[in-house]
Amino acid sequence: MLLVSDVHGAFESLRAVVARNETLLILGDLINLLDYRTQEGIIADVLGTEFGAVIAKNRALGDYDAMRQTWGEATGERRTEITKQIQAGIKAQYELCQEALAGARGFCTYGNVDNPQLLAAALPATMRFVDAEVHEIEGVTVGFVGGGTATPLAGAGEVSDEEMVAKLEKVGEVDVLCSHLPPRVPALSTDVITGRRERSSGPILDYLREFQPRYHFFGDIHQPQATTWRVGRTVCRNVGYFRATGRPVEFSP
Q1: Mean pLDDT of the chain
Q2: What is the pTM of this model?
Q3: What is the DSSP string of 191-238?
Q4: Which partner for 184 in 48, 93, 191, 205 could form a disulfide, CB atoms 3.0-4.6 Å apart?
Q5: How far apart are CA 155 and CA 167, in angstroms?
Q6: Could you give the 3-state DSSP secondary structure of residue 20?
Q7: Whole-angstrom Cα distance, residue 246 to residue 115?
Q8: Distance between CA atoms of residues 60 and 52, nearest Å
Q9: pLDDT tens-digit profile of 80-89?
């Protein structure tokens, strides 16, 4: 099977992965609101690259108050109109995602930038939207928990720790856990470009310590200090920033 995460609009590369005709697991963040490296994305398309650069700088600092202030100053009385334009851009990207996934077979969960409802609607019939579910895939039980950690931005794809705990309780013991978020392990949640600890999940770390699945696959951190780590017997693996690499991770149970 092949695993990808953080596609962020790289739909041509995703199409090439689909063409390999293997079971595909997608771990969230399909759309590209804003590429913090290049300032490309839906937000920049609507509000300009200079605005995108300011947002990227504040995001790298983890300054959500400054992000909200910048947003308010840029949108002003046009907030409703701009929000509609961004929503239209999101829907357009999910349409491109749907085209790229034509013929794909596998499973997809969501990340913090995703709209779960729009993502689920965009998937072809052969790709199943999964969250807080367990499926047997190529002889192993795989649990899926979607979403990113809650922030002051309150994105559609964010979930609270309490919600994540409830999802993990539904999953229970599995051979492989798949999530968008990394466990709260410093080396796995530190971005070497921003130089700071990024969002990570305490509930997922607690789950790994209790149930010890063979593998935990995830994404979210684009430039992690470490891509692989062990929590007890569990091998934790960041499957990569697909928008930048265009490469899936191959996994043979």
Answers
A1: 95
A2: 0.95
A3: ETTTTEE---BHHHHHHHHHH--SEEEE---SSBS-SEEEETTEEEEE
A4: 205
A5: 18
A6: coil
A7: 22
A8: 12
A9: 999 999 999 9
Question: How far apart are alpha carbons 218 and 184 in whole angstroms?
Answer: 12
**Residue-wise DSSP of 134-185:** EEEETTEEEEEE--EE--TT--TTEE-HHHHHHHHHHH-S-SEEEESSPBS-
Give me the half-sphere count of Cα atoms (radius 13 Å) on the Cβ side of residue 93: 24
Rounded Cα–Cα distance for residues 166 and 163 (Å): 5
Amino acid at 223: Q
Euclidean distance between CA atoms 143 and 145, whole angstroms: 7
- Domain at 2-30+106-250: CATH code: 3.60.21.10
User: Which residue matches tokens 């130089």?
Assistant: 195
Per-residue pLDDT tens digits for 4-36: 999 999 999 999 999 999 999 999 999 999 998
- Rounded CA-CA distance 222/243 in Å is 9
Does residue 89 sit in helix, strand or coil?
helix
